[in-house]
């Protein structure tokens, strides 16, 4: 690790191989990956269909630049807008870049933005301005004119959003903040408040897309957001993000850009991911796995919350469980200090998942 930045809290493991929900380290030890590469390996590590698409695209074209239309890029943009019910797509390399793009789209009307307590939207300076956590320490002052309100509190939101507000930015399910779901009508109220004040409703689906039993989490709540930012699952581990929005919000030439965003290889991988999702009926499978996983977690004394295969369970010794589980060959992440977070691949096998949960139970102090 001598040559790598200290910016990450690393596990100390050096991984050399991956397949579906299994990782192998340099010593050949196997690990069940309940983190899913922090939510990126949506159809499993080294998925063969995705790997073939990447290999094929690498022999044809990697990146012809965004001054040209690239065929895989155009097909992906068309597909993502159809899946989301939007009309325009800007492709990026990451979640935080997607959020920066969404911020720029939003600030055409005014500079005032509203976001939520415990929200996480990225670590670059614009996205960090919306993030409400200790990640801000040492980097302030950030963007001005940002108001933070409690998540899932429609009254507080109504007080914060005015005719001078550009947008309300919210995760449909809070991720880093501890896997918190809103009430069933919260996002509808948010959409109504935004419409009344001519403000945009911007959804951060960087972590929730594809994972909840639908293409996008907002589709469970009966709303049509103005802007959707996403990234993590799109290309199954290759860098790719997307911002999906109404056409009338689009940039003029030169107002925004990206050298690598929407490169042909990542787009080919993303199209292959969508093929796998459809052909293997992974939305239905996710809902069934969710039910089984919830029951298994409850059987070991945890109280899970979440949707699809995005689950969290509070435990006062979450970090100790994480350490003990790693020693037993199971990888799980911890968010908001004491929440065990599970983001396994949607393709994880039932026995693999059951065995991993049993180990988690045995790892509780």
Key words describing this protein structure:
globular; 365 residues; 15 strands; alpha/beta; 2 domains; 11 helices; single chain; 4-stranded mixed sheet; 7-stranded mixed sheet; Aspartate Aminotransferase, domain 2; Aspartate Aminotransferase, domain 1
Q: Topology of this structure?
A:
Blueprint: E1 15-19, E2 22-25, E3 30-33, H1 36-39, H2 48-58, H3 71-84, E4 88-92, H4 95-106, E5 112-116, H5 125-130, E6 146-149, H6 154-160, E7 165-170, H7 186-196, E8 200-205, E9 227-230, E10 241-245, H8 264-279, H9 282-299, E11 305-307, E12 310-314, H10 318-327, E13 330-331, E14 333-335, E15 339-342, H11 350-362
Parallel strand pairs: 3-13, 5-6, 5-7, 7-8, 8-9
Antiparallel strand pairs: 1-2, 2-3, 4-10, 9-10, 11-12, 12-15, 14-15
Number of discrete helical segments: 11
Secondary-structure element sequence?
EEEHHHEHEHEHEHEEEHHEEHEEEH
Strand-pairing-aware structural class: alpha/beta
Q: How much helix, percentage-wise, in residues? A: 25-40%
Overall mean pLDDT score? 97
Which value, in Å, is the CA radius of gyration?
20 Å
Q: Biggest sheet: strands, sense, closure?
A: 7 strands, mixed
What's the CATH first level of the largest domain?
Alpha Beta
Q: Distance between the terminal alpha carbons, to the nearest Å? A: 30 Å
Using DSSP, what is the number of strands? 15
What's the structural domain tally? 2
Give the uncertain stretches in residue-range form: none
Q: Strand fraction band?
A: 15-25%
């Amino acid at each position: 690790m001598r040559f790598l930045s200290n910016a990450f809290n690393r596990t100390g493991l050096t991984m050399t191989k991956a397949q579906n929900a299994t990782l192998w380290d340099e010593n050949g030890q196997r690990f069940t990956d309940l983190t899913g590469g922090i939510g990126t390996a949506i159809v499993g590590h080294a998925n063969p269909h995705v790997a073939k698409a990447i290999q094929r695209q690498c022999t044809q074209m990697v990146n012809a630049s965004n001054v040209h239309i690239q065929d895989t890029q155009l097909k992906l943009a068309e597909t993502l807008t159809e899946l989301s019910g939007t009309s325009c797509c800007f492709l990026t390399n990451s979640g935080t870049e997607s959020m920066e793009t969404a911020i720029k789209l939003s600030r055409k009307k005014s500079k005032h933005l509203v976001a939520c307590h415990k929200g996480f939207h990225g670590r670059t300076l614009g996205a960090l301005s919306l993030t409400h956590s200790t990640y801000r320490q040492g980097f302030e002052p950030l963007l001005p004119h940002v108001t933070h309100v409690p998540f899932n509190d429609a009254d507080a939101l109504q007080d914060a959003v005015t005719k001078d507000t550009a947008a309300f930015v919210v995760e449909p399910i809070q991720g880093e903040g501890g896997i918190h779901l809103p009430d069933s009508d919260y996002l509808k109220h948010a959409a109504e408040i935004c419409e009344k004040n001519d403000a945009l409703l911007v959804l951060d689906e960087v972590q929730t897309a594809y994972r909840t039993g639908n293409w996008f989490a907002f589709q469970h709540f009966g709303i049509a957001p103005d802007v959707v930012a996403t990234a993590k699952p799109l290309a199954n581990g290759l860098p790719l993000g997307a911002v999906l929005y109404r056409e009338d919000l689009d940039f003029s030439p030169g107002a925004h850009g990206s050298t690598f965003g929407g490169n042909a290889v990542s787009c080919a991988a993303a199209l292959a991911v969508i093929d796998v999702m459809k052909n293997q009926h992974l939305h239905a499978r996710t809902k069934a796995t969710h039910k089984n996983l919830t029951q298994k977690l409850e059987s070991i004394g945890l109280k899970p919350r979440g949707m699809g295969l995005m689950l969290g369970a509070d435990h006062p010794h979450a970090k100790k469980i994480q350490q003990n589980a790693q020693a037993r060959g199971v990888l799980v992440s911890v968010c908001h200090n004491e929440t065990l977070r599970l983001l396994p691949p949607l393709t994880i096998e039932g026995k693999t998942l059951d065995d991993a949960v049993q180990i988690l139970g045995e790892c509780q102090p």
